[in-house]
Design brief:
The protein is α/β, with parallel strands linked by helices. It is built from 10 helices and 9 strands. Helix 9 links the parallel strand 8 and strand 9. Bound molecules: zinc ion.
């Protein structure tokens, strides 16, 4: 969900915090309360912090780790798509203290509903760094997987019901996904008793991503590369982009047996879906996933949208799911 303008400038990725110190801690908690209220008001069943506690889905986690120098920057190509100035891995990476555990405890205190917490996936993490220490993408990803597992275990102990790893890089580096990407993902969730999810999308609705999508042709078959391996993996839920995308819906058949988060809201447009639009996407998905395993969701995060649009889309998601619930129980 987008942040309120007093916390960070909305409709912008990597938007800097407007507060500092104690005020920032209070501000993030206030924004989390607001976001939670909006989710509950919209009728969302599984709620989150609305990403009010992080500046960016990858960088905020990495900022809390040792071994990465944010002052030493190099320009690299992110997901083979756009150049960005990124921090450098200068030594062994480690987590000296929890990153989001206090935030998760706070969220847990605020609601009785099941809560989900998102962390970046190991492959997506290494893709936003310049590595001068390990000089091996696989080795660095493995180290991050171990760190993520430490964090995930503490999030679980804090009462998180679903831990999600965001791996948009799975739609780009197919050989690596098969060689070690899924293994690193499983290392990150090893030993967890709560549910686990992997979110594989085509990115936020920013220009670099929408331009890239234009080059992908009439059918987006990227999921075909990762789904067979994920179907056999230990991850419980797979989150994918559907509505307004060119992903052939029958690819969901490749993960038969898994729970599926079906993206029924397009995050790359300000046009708010109608409940019937959402229901249509869910009906198509139901041909390939059993109803009790279907989790209607957005295609990706709505952080870069306006608050009004994001609220409207959240309500549409909930109302569309309700249409399907009524049809199924009739
Ligand atoms: Zn996403």
């Amino acid at each position: 969900m987008p942040k309120p303008s007093w916390l960070a400038q909305p409709e912008k990725l990597w938007s800097p915090w407007k507060l500092q110190g104690e005020e920032l801690i209070d501000g993030k908690q206030d924004a989390l309360r607001l976001s939670l209220h909006e989710q509950e008001r919209a009728g969302i069943d599984i709620v989150s912090d609305g990403e009010q506690t992080r500046q960016h889905f990858v960088t905020t986690f990495i900022e809390h780790l040792e071994g990465v120098d944010f002052e030493k920057r190099e320009t690299v190509r992110i997901r083979d798509r756009y150049d960005a100035s990124v921090p450098t891995v200068v030594g062994a990476v480690s987590r000296q203290k929890p990153v989001f555990v206090e935030d998760a405890k706070f969220l847990r205190q605020q609601t009785q509903k099941p809560i989900k917490w998102a962390l970046p996936g190991p492959m997506t993490m290494i893709d936003t760094l310049y590595d001068r220490h390990y000089k091996s993408r696989e080795k660095l990803a493995w180290e991050f997987a171990k760190i993520l597992n430490q964090e995930a275990r503490e999030l679980e102990a804090a009462g998180v019901d679903i831990i999600q790893l965001d791996e948009p890089a799975f739609n780009v580096f197919f050989d690596e996904v098969n060689d070690w990407g899924v293994a690193a993902l499983e290392r990150a969730i090893e030993g967890l008793k709560c549910e686990t999810a992997v979110h594989i999308c085509y990115g936020y609705g920013i220009k670099a991503n929408t331009d890239w999508k234009e080059t992908l042709g009439s059918e987006w078959r990227q999921y075909e590369e990762s789904f067979p391996k994920l179907q056999k993996s230990s991850v419980d839920i797979i989150s994918l982009e559907c509505h307004n995308s060119r992903v052939p819906i029958d690819l969901i058949e490749l993960i038969r047996g898994k729970k599926v988060m079906v993206g029924a809201i397009d995050v790359a447009t300000d046009i708010i879906e109608t409940p019937e639009d959402v229901a249509n996407t869910l009906r198509k998905a139901l041909r390939f996933v059993d109803a009790d395993k279907l989790y209607p969701s957005t295609n990706c995060g709505m952080a870069p949208l306006s608050r009004r649009v994001a609220r409207g889309k959240l309500s549409a998601l909930s109302a569309g799911a309700e249409i399907i619930r009524r049809e199924l129980s009739a």
